[in-house]
Amino acid sequence: MKTTGMKTLLRQTTLQLAVLLVLTSAAAAAPLEIFVSIPPQKWLSEKIGGELVSTNVLVVRGQDPHTFEPTPRQISSLARSRLYFTIGMEFEQQITQKLDGTVASMRMVDTTATIDRIPAIAHEQEEGHDVHVSHAADGHGEEPEKPAGQEEHERHAHHHPGDDPHVWLSPPNLIRMAKVMAEAMIAADPEHAATYRQNLNQTTDSLTQLHRDIATMLAPFRGASFYVFHPSFGYFAREYGLRQEAVEISGKSPTPKQISNLIAKAKEDKVRIIFVQPQFDSKSATAVARAIGGVVEPLDALAGDIPANLRTMALQIKNALDHSPRTQP
Asked: Which is more confident, 3 or 24?
């Protein structure tokens, strides 16, 4: 009887160990759960993490991130993730107020911590300045070192309310974001640090080449203006020495006087194309285009495949400026 009891106990112990081993292996194989705010961040997360991560995005295609509000279900799912990569959008404040410091297993990381932000008012006034040159875009694919004593910004971003949040519309900024994301993934999953670093290097190289290609494409048009509905393209304009003129001002539809002034300026610039983002009502832009004998064309700042979208954006702007008499040789 004792022998039978010992065998039974041994079988039970062996079974428990096997179950524990299976559960441990499954946990080790489970991807790192990540949340991001917008589709372009998801592209970066998946490029850096590959199969090691599972990335969820809050703002889906067609939604306006400026008016977006996360649902209770999204907040609940986000709370169960390991990492939440923020980008400085206003709606993120709701999330950080509810979750910051209350979910020990989830870390919030500001992906824009190393980016030089520009004020939103620069959309109308200051975007024609020289292209910003950084080590991230000088052909070596390297990021500039942080100043001594500067720590990585975590939790929610402390951005000024007037900052332009559209930082992702610049390849050098994407490189900076990618580095922050990779460092956070490595901290959360150090066992796969080498894979994250290798993927980061490949992503950096491809974005550096993209920046070179766009800079070459748009070099003949430095100082030229392109017209948009919502002023999303300040960082893109800054990188390539362009100016954007916006129909929408300070998040509000323009007054008749503002529309009249914009029409006069568009006629002076010989503009024939106004770009409209699909997240916004295009009535005002259509009115301006009709008044100048031009057309409205789509330009999506939130497309998921951000490199392909930036290349398409550059080509669309190039084509618009190619047909502008003021840019003809």
From this structure: 3
